[in-house]
Amino acid sequence: MSLNGYGHVSGDQTVVNDGKRKKRIAIIGVSSLILVAMVVAVAVGVNHSHNGTEQSNGGANSGEISTSMKAIKAICQPTDYKEACVDSLSSAAGNTTDPKELIKVAFKVAMNKITDAVKQSDVLKELEKDPRASQALDNCNELMDYAVDDLKSSFEQLGEFDLSKLDEILGDLKIWLSAAVTYQETCLDGFENTTGNAGESMKKALKTSGELTRNGLAIVTEIASVLTSLQIPTFNRRLLSEESEIPANGEFPSWVSAGKRRLLAATPATIKPNVVVAKDGSGKYKTIREAIHDIPTKSNQTFVIYIKAGVYEEHVLINKTMTNVMMIGDGPTKTKITGNKNFVDGIPTFHTATVAVVGTGFIAKNIGFENTAGAVKHQAVALRVQSDMSIFYNCKMDAYQDTLYPHTHRQFYRDCTISGTIDFIFGNAAAVFQNCKMVVRKPLENQQCIVTAQGRKDKREPTGFVLQNCTITADPLYYPFRKINLAYLGRPWKEYSRTIIMQSQIDDLIQPEGWLPWMGDFGLNTCFYSEYRNRGPGAALGKRVKWRGIKNITPQHVLDFTAARFIRGDSWIKATGVPYTPGLSAVVFIIVTTYVDHRKDTLANCHSIEPISRDTLLASIAETGKQTELAVRVSTWKQKIEHSLEEQDLRPPFDIREYGGRVLDKLSLEADYGGAMSFAGAKRNMMLLEFSLQFRN
Ligand SMILES: *[C@@H]1O[C@H](CO)[C@@H](O)[C@H](O)[C@H]1NC(C)=O
Ligand SMILES: *[C@@H]1O[C@H](CO)[C@@H](O)[C@H](O)[C@H]1NC(C)=O
Ligand SMILES: *[C@@H]1O[C@H](CO)[C@@H](O)[C@H](O)[C@H]1NC(C)=O
Ligand SMILES: *[C@@H]1O[C@H](CO)[C@@H](O)[C@H](O)[C@H]1NC(C)=O
Ligand SMILES: *[C@@H]1O[C@H](CO)[C@@H](O)[C@H](O)[C@H]1NC(C)=O
């Protein structure tokens, strides 16, 4: 998606917005069908008048056939597998020329092909002798079920929809189609090292459905990019200008139940969960497995399970009918769910997870997830997550190889600690990790450690891992071995593997090369790895590998990987009350430290500084405001700061050090988008302050 759509909010934003609102209302009036048709037409270059002429020239029938073939060809134009696209549509779409119908048919054919593949896997299963292959076939059945679900959601989404939400809808479609691609891929991954030809047969059975799913993703991506380039006012802007204001007013979207909000703000002592699990018998159940039977089916109300302190040795599956479940514990080291399933003992990686979460809208707070199989047992997942719009807050995930598996969909991790050895965060979700700690543990003697192995398969998938203000560090037991068992930031599990590490602390365990190849030159040109303004001895970029996939990212481009944009966090994270940074975060942090620490000596000598420092502060804040995308929000906190400045004046002598720290703390707390200001801007503000202080001295 182009960045232009977000643009910069100018000073006369209100005026602009008013005009936009009118325009938007007008556009909403247009039938969605026409718009989608129009967009597709622009996207793929269907020339309506040309078609019209042809239709009247030819006989009614042949005209229709060629028109619908034209529409099909146009729809299929942006896809990678054109032949599969045209073939499937021309045999299944009748003679419709409506692009929306054609897209729906494309999804439907993909679904049918997957269903065929499932039948195929049942046949193969009958004949299968290798137990690993047999399990892989079982997995495929489950995974195909998920894939069909996501395609079905995509199909249904294209019914009647609110045009003003078109950008969200296209975002959802991309996420779901990407998940459908991933599930098919995971099915095939399961056959690695199996004997017999079940793997090859499944590969053949899934060939067409895989191509058609990726075609669907290509078509949707094309529409989204055309919409962006048309600069339709409803598109893109809305997210920042409206949605972000909802929580600011203290009103939450109706779908956020009171329970969810209350819980995230409260402590276990003050909550009323739907069910309490306690090992010591003081709750309704002693195990989590029993408690999850109480979860209502497909509920849109948050169902809260309070798991009291204790070590729960069980395997938990929050399946797809269990939506909006929240688990809250007594702390990530106190409430622990633990297991030890693993690959070496014959279980496919996909099914080794101690806890697996599928149902949409899952939240976990204060819980530890663990797989204790140990390094010798190879792949052994502590937590697998498919839940769309899921949140993990103050949690801990501990294992060795493949600890955390953010498999599909949108996920948000905040204040979590994740430990492991090889590929210990792996999968193909769109996942943002904020303020998390990635702890490398001691592996087996001959092993290397890799923090991430992101698995993006198609270049259009909106997935990837974003680490923001995280710390990548060594476990004390590993530390002495860091020069023997080398550690890397990541490696490309699939061709388009994508990982962005920004504003984070990278300790000296990470090798100067930074990234590790998967196998030969696989993915080195097509992956997308970027490091943006990291700090620490492991963050130096000078000796990094020089693959084409290692990207230098601009301050503008990096915004695409902030939580507000990358996973549309404003619309589902913000309202839950979980601490959340929608934009960049560390800039404010840098100002605070520089301001308070670096300037200590000079500042300590300043007594009668108040008039200038106050004006300077205000000036720098105003300057910041100008640079910040969300001018409206900036002005709110600016007012607050001005107000407290006035109060401050009543209590001389004015301690600028203390005060500067406080103001900037406020900034970081209240100006959610404050982080979006450019580093250059922040630096200029610092110089302004410095200059005035020197002048004063
Ligand atoms: C083609 O369109 C005509 C009318 O537009 C309709 O009656 C006919 O059933 C359609 N054919 C197919 C195969 O869908
Ligand atoms: C498959 O076998 C090869 C060779 O024995 C091994 O290196 C590899 O790790 C195995 N793959 C898995 C997933 O265990
Ligand atoms: C919850 O689901 C029901 C039934 O599907 C629906 O009627 C209702 O509007 C939903 N409530 C919210 C707040 O979304
Ligand atoms: C989800 O789990 C519940 C409880 O174990 C079960 O009744 C239900 O059938 C499961 N749903 C699916 C789709 O597996
Ligand atoms: C960055 O993370 C650290 C450690 O989790 C935290 O103390 C700090 O407040 C974070 N900074 C910002 C700007 O969020």
Automatic annotation (TrEMBL):
UniProt cross-references to PROSITE patterns, sorted A to Z: PECTINESTERASE_2
Pathway assignment: Glycan metabolism; pectin degradation; 2-dehydro-3-deoxy-D-gluconate from pectin: step 1/5
E.C. numbers: 3.1.1.11
Biological process terms in GO annotation: cell wall modification; pectin catabolic process
NCBIfam families attached to this UniProt entry: PME_inhib
The protein's name: Pectinesterase
Native organism: Tetracentron sinense (Spur-leaf)
Enzyme class: hydrolase
Catalytic residues identified in the record: 423
Chain ranges of the Pectinesterase inhibitor domain: 67-219
Function: Acts in the modification of cell walls via demethylesterification of cell wall pectin.
Entry-linked InterPro entries: CNDH2_C (IPR031737), Invertase/methylesterase_inhib (IPR035513), Pectin_lyas_fold (IPR012334), Pectin_lyase_fold/virulence (IPR011050), Pectinesterase_Asp_AS (IPR033131), Pectinesterase_cat (IPR000070), Pectinesterase_inhib_dom (IPR006501)
PANTHER family: PECTINESTERASE
Transmembrane segments: 25-46
